[in-house]
Specification:
Order of helices and strands: EHEEHEHEEHHHEHEHEHHEHHEHHHEH
Number of domains: 3
Number of helices: 16
Mean pLDDT: 89
CATH architecture of the largest domain: 2-Layer Sandwich
Strand order of the largest sheet: 9-8-7-10
CATH superfamily of the largest domain: Beta Polymerase, domain 2
CATH class of the largest domain: Alpha Beta
Length: 490
């Protein structure tokens, strides 16, 4: 059997995370990678590169098929041209022995952030059992490096203290504002901002981690809320938590106490960098949200099986969780458990639907705008609680119902719509309405100096076309609520 192969990908026995999520890495590996054995010569590998117009190959064990490393065209040319390497050298001598690797069912956003952080050009994709699935490069993951992000990423990576990180965060926000005003799409902008904010948070955690002697156990910093949904805008606070895996249940409290000073220092550093402390104290430095993997699962199990209205008000923030820094695996296991457990909880969905229907879109019976009774901001609409939330609630509800791993609202609506075989044009209209409301929110955040008014808009301040567009977006929200009521609350 030849050491150089182009095998067909095999399907993992484990279920795909979220089933049909088109933003998973699995869907981005559009072609089979070149696979070579460790004894394959540079000459033979170069021949395949030239024939197939490739720039990298995966080195695999011919017996087990497990990936051993990565060999890149650029490295091979350097070795031959400047280091005296021979064309008959085996690739194993010159390969990258521990290439960047993720499971094929990881979200593409995670890969974008990881590749940007490491400066990697290629990423190996594996099945859950370690077998090779594919290979992606930066071209497959376009997005984060748009808008001149390279300079910003370099500034984040080179920061050596929290003061430098605060300056880097400010540069990201200012560049994001420029991209918004130049017309970048809302979804693209939010992915861009969230990706760079992830890098900022990861670098802050790295800097603070060096100051503490943390327990030698698996742990992960988790993002919730808008950060978890990849929908951070220009006025955002912290929603985060910490998950750890203690060596045994009896040591849980001692491990928690060891993590808390570190988590509190990270929360303080993020606050210094412009990410305001959560008013509801949903932060990793709060002992209530610095929990073992078993404790997190128990919380979610309680919310699913005993969905009291008051608990659900906060719980919805946690359902948007995703791993940010540390060991992804225990958080992914939690998400996998949730995606399999939640769809069976009928009472939970009934209560979650009632909560989603508790506020009506701000349109009166004659199609005119309706206003809340906020005395400080009369004749205004809160585009977060009376606008974007209708789409967020629907996306979250259907994602949990259909076991979808995606956390972003637009992706949840796309995937849930596909699972329900809905008209693609209707789904597109809902997503466009959500993004329109988000655009109005971002514009307000960039123009007001009052932190209490960052999500409020006075329709009289809009031109006629924008008022009509906002009304149409609220009509889409009403249709969403009608579907929720028909499916869950009737």
């Amino acid at each position: 059997m030849s050491e150089t192969e182009h095998p067909v990908n095999e399907t993992s026995d484990l279920p795909a995370a979220g089933g049909t999520d088109q933003d998973l890495l699995r869907s981005l590996a559009r072609r089979q990678p070149l696979i070579v054995g460790p004894g394959t010569s540079l000459r033979e590998t170069l021949y395949h590169f030239s024939q197939d117009h490739l720039d990298a190959a995966v080195v695999c064990d011919p017996a087990s098929g497990l990936p051993l490393g990565l060999i890149r065209l650029r490295d091979m040319l350097h070795v031959i041209g400047f280091e005296g390497g021979g064309l008959d050298d085996p690739v194993a001598v010159h390969m990258i022995g521990a290439p960047l690797t993720l499971t094929a069912d990881a979200p593409a956003h995670r890969a974008r952030v990881m590749m940007a952080k490491r400066g990697a050009e290629h990423l190996l994709l594996t099945e859950h059992d370690g077998r090779l699935f594919g290979l992606v490069n930066q071209t497959d993951l376009l997005g984060l490096r748009a808008g001149g992000a390279e300079v910003l990423i370099a500034g984040i990576k080179s920061a050596r203290d929290v003061e430098a990180m605060a300056l880097a965060a400010d540069r990201v926000r200012r560049r994001g504002a420029e991209l918004f005003h130049s017309g970048m799409g809302v979804e693209t902008l939010c992915y861009w901002m969230s990706g760079l904010n992830d890098l900022i948070a990861m670098r802050v955690i790295e800097l603070i981690e060096d100051e503490f002697d943390l327990p030698a156990v698996p742990w992960c910093w988790m993002a919730f809320g808008s950060e978890g949904r990849l929908e951070q805008t220009f006025s955002t606070d912290q929603d985060n938590g910490l998950l750890f895996v203690p060596p045994d249940p009896d040591s849980t409290e001692s491990v928690r106490q060891s993590f808390l000073p570190f988590a509190q220092a990270v929360n303080q550093a993020l606050h210094f960098c412009g990410f305001e402390r959560c008013r509801g104290n949903i932060m990793a430095g709060n002992p209530a949200w610095c929990l073992s993997a078993d404790e997190w699962r128990k919380h979610f199990k309680t919310w699913l099986r005993e969905p009291e209205p008051e608990a659900l008000l906060n719980a919805v923030i946690f359902f948007d969780f995703r791993p940010l820094y540390g060991s992804d695996e225990p958080v992914d296991r939690l998400r996998d458990w949730l995606s399999r457990t939640a769809p069976e909880q009928t009472r939970f969905f009934h209560c979650l639907a009632e909560q989603a229907l508790g506020v009506a879109p701000p349109l009166g019976w004659a199609g005119q705008f309706a206003f809340d009774r906020n005395r400080d901001f009369p004749h205004t609409i809160d585009l977060k609680t009376q606008g974007a939330r209708f789409f967020m609630d629907a996306g979250r509800l259907w994602a949990l119902k259909h076991g979808i791993w995606a956390t972003s609202t637009a992706e949840r609506l796309r995937l849930a719509g596909a699972a329900k075989r809905r008209d693609p044009e209707e789904i597109a209209a809902e997503i466009e309405s959500f993004h329109l409301i988000q655009r109005f929110r971002i514009h307000q955040q960039l123009t007001t100096k009052d932190p209490e008014a960052v999500n409020r808009v006075d329709p009289d301040d809009l031109n006629e076309l924008h008022r009509l567009m906002l009304k149409e977006a609220f009509k889409q929200a009403k249709k969403l609520q009608a579907r929720i009521k028909q499916e869950f609350a009737s």
